[in-house]
Amino acid sequence: MEFKHIPIMLNEIIENLNIVPDGVYVDCTLGGAGHSLEIAKKLNDKGILIGIDKDATAINVSRERLKNLKCKVILVQDDFKNLKTILQQNNISKVNGILADLGVSSYQIDEVDRGFSYSKDAPLDMRMNTSQSLTAKEVVNSYSEKDLLNILYTYGEENFAKNIVKNIIKQRQIKPIERTGELVKIIENSVPAKVLYKGGSVAKKTFQALRIEVNGELDSLKSVLNTMIEVLVPAGRLCIISFHSLEDRLVKNCFTENSTACICPKNFPICVCNHKAIIKLITKKPIIPTEIEQQENSRSSSSKLRIIEKL
Predict the structure, then answer these.
(1) Ordered DSSP codes for 9-59
(2) In 3D, which of 65, 66, 63 has the Cα closest to residue 43?
(3) What is the pTM of this model?
(4) pLDDT per residue over 279-297, tens digit each?
């Protein structure tokens, strides 16, 4: 299967990165190099593009797509939470721009055996890095009831988590739950009929929650946001595309705190925190895809782009 991933808000990203030809740019979520290719085209022979992805297939495909360019290209199979280490290993201390597109690539969703899709029966996997040991199958079959509830509530914001988990526990006592189709049926049997026939899959939130747990997505994002800001040069830009409220909230809160001069409680008569703003918000409200883009690529519809600039 061709590694296909339509880059979301491509024009908005390229415009807002303020690319300088001899700069250093990092694509933390390389995918099929859709964004990276357009960034690289704007760099000269002194420019550097660093692409990071957990998925070995993404790295291999992008290596082919990013060859014969003027700039230096460095591709790394790793979790972007290790951004600082990756830069240090390549003798880079500061960068001019960073992009993180937090969505799952179309290739990963469409490749049935990866188990990301709730619309296709496949092994319960959901690993972005197929060399890691933890899979969705292990989470579903070995996590405690309490832990499963926490995952579905926290990462999926699933209203029917209690019923879904109760039925997962019941089913796995009979036999292990091994396929996405089995899990979808359990979820469908756990929600009221009026919800089931409302439109859209009732499995979406549970699958999102499991994917986040398997890949440690929110932990990675939370641990690296301040590092992303730290490694930017003055006037450097950071662009982050999120796809659900949990991601967006982390990004928004980080950007708000780092763009605020004083973070003392409002009832304090004077500032005692000595906190200084180190970034400015380029987008006070997130950018969303145009109606045309949403029609052409339905997977872009829930995306939000937030941008900051280092002071």
Answers:
(1) THHHHHHHTT--TT-EEEESS-TTSHHHHHHHHT--TT-EEEEEES-HHHH
(2) 66
(3) 0.92
(4) 999 999 999 999 999 999 9
